Amino acid sequence: xxxxxRDRLSKVGLGVWFAAFLVFLYxxxxxxxxxxxxxxRGGSGFPAVGVPSGYWYNYLTxxxxxxxxxxxxxxxxxxxxxxxIGGALALSLIMAYRRMGRRGGTVLLYxxxxxxxxxGILLGLGMILWWKLLGLxxxxxxxxxxxxxxxxxxxxxxxxxxxxNRYDVAVEEAARDLGASVMQTFTRVTLPIIWGGVFGxxxxxxxxxxxxxxxxxxxSTTNTLPLEIYxxxxxxxxxxxLYALGxxxxxxxxxxxxxxxxxVALIVRRTARTQAAAFQTxxxxxxxxxxxxxxxxxxxx
Amino acid sequence: xPEPELTPTKSATEGRSGVDxxxxxxIALSDAAGAEIYGEEKGAGHxxxxxxxxxxxxxxxxxxxxxxxxxxxxxPVIVVLVVSFFTGTITGFxxxxxxxxxxxIFSGSSTYLSTLGTVARNSAIVTAVCLVIGYPVAYFLAVKxxxxxxxFGLFLIALAxxxxxxxxxxxxxxxxxxxxxxxxxxxxxxGIIHHPLGILLFSNFAxxxxxxxxxxxxxxxxxxxxxxxLDRSAIEAARDLGASGFRVFMxxxxxxTRGGIMIGCVFVFVLSMGDFATYKLVGGGxxxxxxxxxxxxxxxxxxxxxxxxxxxxxxxxxxGVVLLLRFAKLQEQV
Lengths: 301, 334
Fold this sequence. Notes:
Chain A is built from eleven helices and no strands.
């Protein structure tokens, strides 16, 4: 077998593997999609009855779903707050991280990894015990909000890290050399370049909070949407309305994530272009300055 | 700034154009180049430190995030360890030191250790399966898909489910794997089975399948990024020297992606050890997990016992991670 043929075969084989992987990844939610489109008589399993029908989606707007709707409200408000705080903290932590030495930076990085790896149920348990020791009773605010931000922060931090990996500090040096204060440099130079990353971090935080379940379970006394879904899944008989809800949440999240990633990709590209342009003018300036310095020396000779 | 005005900037220009010629269109500087050019302390190992980095400014940036993580992450984790040594009461705990929470776990009548064993074995299986499934996926995207835009586009399609709800991803297995679920009806329709398979849901098998699907992206992502950043010239050199595709993979590509594999394994292992939702919904109560134990104990207000179980879970996770790193001798690689 020639080398080329073998390359072609391995590519096709791996392509098939990848396609199967996508089926594995998306299959179950597509099954939910099919069953959520059943008519009124549809149940939790196959055969699907009366596909397609919007009955179970309409059901979510009806009187039987008022608990779900109020949970949606709770989750929406919480996710918005987590988004704002998560984006702001990711920004401030990365600004600190850039300035820290190797050792401090490593400590911060490990702290962020701890936030990522601590099992949700353990963090929830720790939170209620910690609040009890303080004489407080756990609730959605601030205990639930606190653990949500902890969950969202690592992802926001990683987004900011990827932005600053492609960022050249020379623009800030130029601003400082031209007499801008630290504050001015931040608001006029740094922030306009990286705001897209902050926005991305905030959207990540929003999405993660909206879908968070394990950290909230023990802490919250108010039902967020995932807690409401969990309650219905474990108590009542499964009805296709929960499939409809799952489908809406899943595809809504995916849409949001794509929008966010596109925004970040655009900002990274624009950052690169802006900075490249800045360098060109900077190089011209250096050439001029260079000539100005060299000229008198030549004259002197 | 008291630095001489022109010299550093001039060398900066030279350094930059030097890098430009190597990586056209990419203005990012390598760490070494950045530090050398600017003659400044490197920030946190690999980011360029901004100018005028006074300690106070750093502290102010650090403070809100550090406080938040201290109050809502570090303190709760420490409190779990502390309360695991407190005495339980009817309504919670009193601050009297005891080791009875641990002796209860290690006594013969407790099922904790066998549950922990099952969870650890499941996590090891899940990690191995994620590696076997995930590596070819990452390899296909990073190496076989030639156009970078397509590779990243396909990667994002694979990544998107990660951000969706773990709860709903667990829920979705119910209509997929149940007695009258999709898999059983398809298998029946094409005549492979005549009676639906009960083992597909509410079983240990189901938990493993669901955990693999939930966590496999933690394996794909680090391997994908490492493969994408791989120096292709090493592979081409091996090819030019006559190595077969398989040998190139085993002797060049695989060793060079060891770091990504390790990160993936650690993430998948740790996250599956601490899982709750999948065990609860897909295991359906037939498979015990530490997460379920903890939730039950909390609902019984037996906080010290829950804390002790959580503490041992953390220790078991740490041991697993250390073994994993030892096994791969990561220290020698880095």
